[in-house]
Amino acid sequence: MIYLDNGATSFCKPLPVYDAVRRAMFTCASPGRGGYSLAMNAGYRVLACRERAGELFACDPEQVVFTGSCTHGLNIAIQSLVKPGARVVITGFEHNAVTRPLYGLGVKISVAGQKLFDWEDTLTAWEAALKKGADAAVFTHCSNVFGYILPVEEMAQLCKKYKVPFIIDAAQSAGVLPVSMKRLEADFIAMPGHKGLLGPQGTGLLLCKDSAQPLVFGGTGSNSLSPEMPDFLPDRLEAGTLNVPGIAGLSEGLAFLLKTGTAAVLEKEHTQAALCAKKLQEMGLRVFAGEHQSGTVSFLPPADCEDFAQILAQKDIAVRAGLHCAPLAHKSAGTLDTGTVRVSYGWNACILQTQRLCEAVAEIMK
């Protein structure tokens, strides 16, 4: 199969990821719940993952909180910063993992910046929205639909200028683009483990400053006498037993990225995405491509998007079609009525994938 749906989940993973999950199943119990070897093994694996994440994302290991997904992390972050009735600024490219928690809180949402691949528009609109006053801001690093890489460093600086706490959704950037907690000084950065970080599904990371509040309450293995959650990270946000096999696999994904370098991954992905966009445009298709683009590209086929993707699937080519859980992004791009077919490359991007995809598209169009 030609797998081009890495925006949903990365596949395949580096081999050590699979090995680590299996090994943890045979050698690990619950971390922090005992001094015997199986519990200690689990603790060591959890700590190793925190340390690798801290190294990759320029933060202290204690600031690394394990979650079940990026969505889980975003909910913790939003519930920590945002109160009902607050005014929150977001971009025109947000995923439902951002918009639905905000709507659930009944906040006043201001959408700032809706032009694809246009940093000037994004920053002008962003500053104008912040100037009007905001209680918080939430913004994606990279659009999951179109691969638009937003100017997050400049957006973060504007948030600090107007004293607005902010959350970054790094679902499509972690493991591919530079993400530095120290440089960005975000209140929270949420990311999945199973996409660019090359870990198993059911894993995620939330990088936190000091404003984090628990979403789930329960045992942590520490301060057991207290009826309240611990007042320190990461325990404050990690109630219940951690997904040790998943974390062990995620740790190996992080190790791979630390060795390979995210810049090398981005170069491979972007090279193929740019080539793919060029070839599809030459076929006369409408392709969404431009400056500041990652390894993801969307296009409109001469047929229903879902039907077109299904025909590609029959040819053993995996892409995703529809609204991609991001109707706001499609509204910004003018594709809310149709959706798009999305091609998203991964760490193993190569010319063969692009060639096979474009050959199949050409065959279908005939």
Descriptive overview:
The chain is α/β, with parallel strands linked by helices. Helix content is 42%, strand content 14%. The chain has twelve helices and 13 strands. The longest helix is centred in the N-terminal third of the chain and has 21 residues, at 37-57. The radius of gyration is 21 Å and the shape is globular.
Strand order of the largest sheet: 2-8-7-6-5-3-4
- The name CATH uses for the topology of the largest domain is Aspartate Aminotransferase, domain 2
Taking all Cα atoms into account, the compactness measure Rg is: 21 Å
Mean pLDDT figure: 97
- Helicity level, as a percent range? 40-55%
The computed structural class is alpha/beta
Number of helices: 12
Distance between the termini: 22 Å
> How do the helices and strands follow one another from N- to C-terminus?
EHHEHEHEHEHEHEEHHEEHEEHEH
CATH architecture verdict of the largest domain: 3-Layer(aba) Sandwich
**Could you say which overall geometry the principal axes of the C-alpha atoms support?**
globular
Q: Beta-strand percentage? A: 5-15%
Compose a concise summary of this entry.
With about 375 residues, the chain is of the alpha/beta class. It contains 12 helices and 13 strands. It folds into 2 domains: about 110 residues, Alpha-Beta Complex (Aspartate Aminotransferase, domain 1), CATH 3.90.1150; about 250 residues, Type I PLP-dependent aspartate aminotransferase-like (Major domain) (Aspartate Aminotransferase, domain 2), CATH 3.40.640.
